[in-house]
Amino acid sequence: xxxxxxxxxxxxxxxxxxxxxxxxxxxxxxxxxxxxxxxxxxxxxxxxxxxxxxxxxxxxxxxxxxxxxxxxxxxxxxxxxxxxxxxxxxxxxxxxxxxxxxxxxxxxxxxxxxxxxxxxxxxxxxx
Length: 127
Description:
Layout lengths: L1 H29 L20 H36 L5 H33 L3
Helix pairs in contact: 1-2, 1-3, 2-3
């Protein structure tokens, strides 16, 4: 069971880090600091359709991305500390909590992308 905790915490840390980076980039995309481009940001047909759609989509994604990175990193800190303190066979509850944390971070990231697309489509009149 112990072998499951480290990969789950590692994956959650990496995904939360990606969410933090995306949060910073979408913050720039929501302002005039970073316009539509094919390198960074939430790149979908709707968000790339205009400057206004790009800004609206990136602004709409911000809350879910913030939830993802803050929740992920705080969760990793709490669960990781618990795991390091116990250093025995981790209880199943810890493994389940790590898996749920990873799932919730991934779901928040997916929600951010859906919100960005929906907001961009509203701007361009497609939804």
